[in-house]
Amino acid sequence: MSARIGIIVGVIAVALAAVAFLFFAPTMTASVGPSVSASPSTSDSASASASPVRVTGLAPVAFGGPEHRNGHPMVYLTYDDGPDPGSTDLVLNELKTLNVPATFFVLGMFMQTPQEQQLIKDEYAQGHSVSVHGFTHGDMLKWRRITVVKELNTMTSLIPQLTGATPTCFRPPYGSYGKAVLVEAKRKNLRIQLWSIDTEDWQLPGVDKMMQTISSQLVPGSVILMHDGRGHGRIASEVTRRTVALAKSRGYEFGQLCPMTKPGETASPVPTPTSTGVPSGLTRPGAVS
User: Fold this and answer.
1) Is residue 80 annotated as part of the catalytic site, yes or no?
2) Closest C-alpha to 270, from 65, 56, 124
3) Interacting residues of 14 by C-beta distance below 8 A, sequence separation 6+
């Protein structure tokens, strides 16, 4: 008798486990890690939950950009963590003087005051791309999917409000991402755009050291990572000036890495990565932004 009871109890336990798995599995697979306390809160769109709409495939990941245009080798300037009044201005002024385009990967938490918002408008008005870095600067690899959704919803709403155009690129903070980020970026028609040359300006190595890094690693399709936020504008503007002179002396041209789209326009084709996601001659970045 006791044996029969044991068998019945075992069957019931297995059945309950199966039901629990079927009920909770979508939630578990949608998460890439524990939740964090920091999340966007200034946009109504941030309250939207993860959409059940199916997405085919994942967002593409690129470390470099198109290597050539009209027979000329290309290089791309990118700046993270702005806007930062008194810092971003210096970079914008240098780019305007040099007449070269760039991409700014911006943080929503620094797009709240009229002065910060004006910098975003200035970036776009001067012909640069305003792309998504995040609302906060958290490690999205450790976040639940719903938190990733809130951040991307907020940023893909906030940037068009200020520029009238839609971003096409997303650079996760620290270059850190998992499947949830790839799925949600795809849903927002964003490609993951990382970098191939890390100046490590956040470690304050000095302008000469940063230029040695750029000079030794510069190849067609290079994407150079610098920061305009957190007070790095003075260094970034100086490195920008010297980088443009160096690259042009080697026959390079500067391109727009992440062209934005206006209502009714079709997004530009996404650069085709190699099998490793890194253009030839480039290596996966070892540092993070």
Assistant:
1) yes
2) 65
3) none
> CA-to-CA distance for 41 and 149, rounded, in angstroms?
12
With b for 16 or more beta-carbon neighbours within 10 A and e for fewer, the 213-232 pattern comes to bbeebbbbbbbbbbbbbbeb
Domain ranges of the chain: 62-254
The Cα 257–Cα 248 span in angstroms is: 17
Q: How far is CA 98 from the centre of its chain?
A: 25
C-alpha span between 170 and 189 (Å, rounded): 10
Can you name the CATH fold of 62-254? Answer: TIM Barrel (3.20.20)
Alpha carbon distance 43, 141 (integer Å): 23
Radius of gyration in angstroms for the set of CA atoms belonging to the chain, rounded to a whole number:
22
Least confident of 15-29, 58-72, 97-111, 214-228: 15-29
Catalytic residue among 133, 227, 228, 232: 227
**pLDDT tens per residue across span 220-236:** 999 999 999 999 999 99
d(CA 223, CA 289): 13
Does the pTM of the predicted model rise above 0.85?
no
Closest C-alpha to 60, from 193, 213, 254: 193
Alpha-carbon 137 to chain mean position: 11
Q: Regarding predicted confidence, which is higher, 113 or 278?
A: 113
- Of the candidates 80, 81, 89, 201, the residue annotated as catalytic is 80
128 is catalytic: no
Residues whose CB is less than 8 angstroms from the CB of residue 214 and which lie 6 or more positions away in sequence, other chains included = 197, 199, 224, 239, 243, 246
